[in-house]
Structure formats: structure tokens, C-alpha cells
């Protein structure tokens, strides 16, 4: 059985590609890559086809994490399977998805799985430019997410 995980943000160039890459690395390191299909997408269409933001590419490179994806927009097909883990970066992404596609049974915010309590939403580095802070939050959230999925799916 393949576990599908889709990370969602607004533009799919800053936060969700970072989460996709960090989570993929954690899954690879755990020897579980054959059991997962991991992707990311944006609720908006402005950046479709673009590479990740230079700030995201730089921070991933600094942490030796590979990423080559291009931005794409979320589709109804992405949310068609109620077992897919839909992981948004902030409350506004969650609301946008519900508005566009209706309630999804397995949708969470990334920082629902975080060990810290200071932030519930991943702040958008497109505006803050604080990619290192975002990386720390994303990493912490991804570690918690993998732990939860492993417990839930018996991996
Ligand atoms: P992201 O950041 O949602 O983390 O990819 C953004 C990227 C682009 C825009 C907004 C947020 N934009 O308005 O173009």
C-alpha cells in the first residue's frame, strides 16, 4: 500500500516545496521511500511551471536536501482519495481548499504535528524572507508528521 502525502501552500514555490523535500529526505533516511508518494501543489496558479523560490533552493542546498520540482496548482484529483494526507502550511490554505473542493477527511496543518507551540501557521517567507526560520518549523512539523503516519499506518 502506498501512502500519499500532498503538501499545499499558496504559490507552491516557497513553503510546500520545502516541506515536500524535507519530508522526502526523512522518509528516505528511514528506509521507507518505497511506501510513500510525496508531492506538493499550490492553491494559486501564479507560479505554475516555475522552479522553487531561490530562498527555498538555497536553504535546501545548505541542508544537503535535493529538490527539482516545478510549481503546479492543486486539482480535484489530488483530493479525490480520502486517505491521502493533505498537509497545508497555514489556515488560509486550509480554508481555500475547503472552499474549492469541500471537506477532506485527512487534511491537517503541518504545525498540528509540531513540537513547538509558538506558531500554528508556517509564516510565508515570500513576504518575510526568513527561510531559515521557516525551514526549522517545516523540519519540526515534518518529523512529527512522519512519526504520526508511522504510528497510524503501522510502519
Ligand atoms: P508559498 O509563498 O505559498 O510559500 O509558495 C508564496 C509565493 C508566491 C506568492 C505568495 C506566497 N504570490 O503571491 O505570488
Task: Briefly say what this structure is.
With 155 residues, the protein is an alpha/beta fold. The chain contains five helices and four strands, in the order E-H-E-H-E-H-E-H-H.
Number of helices: 5
CATH architecture: 3-Layer(aba) Sandwich
Helix-and-strand structural type: alpha/beta
Strand content: 5-15%
Q: Distance between termini?
A: 11 Å
What general outline do the C-alpha atoms trace? globular
Strand order of the largest sheet: 2-1-3-4
Low-confidence stretches: none
Tags for this entry?
about 160 residues; alpha/beta; Rossmann fold; 4-stranded parallel beta sheet; binds 4-nitrophenyl phosphate
Give structural notes.
The protein has five helices and four strands; from the N terminus they run βαβαβαβαα. The protein has 155 residues and is α/β, with parallel strands linked by helices. It has one domain: Response regulator (Rossmann fold), CATH 3.40.50.2300. It has a four-stranded parallel sheet with strand order 2-1-3-4. The termini are close together. Helices cover 40% and strands 14% of the residues. The chain has helices at 15-29, 54-62, 91-101, 125-128, 131-153; strands at 3-9, 36-42, 85-88, 107-109. 4-nitrophenyl phosphate binds at residues 9-15, 46-47, 124, 126. 4-nitrophenyl phosphate is lined by residues 9-15, 46-47, 124, 126.
Per-chain topology:
Blueprint: E1 3-9, H1 15-29, E2 36-42, H2 54-62, E3 85-88, H3 91-101, E4 107-109, H4 125-128, H5 131-153
Parallel strand pairs: 1-2, 1-3, 3-4
The site of 4-nitrophenyl phosphate has 11 residues, from loops.
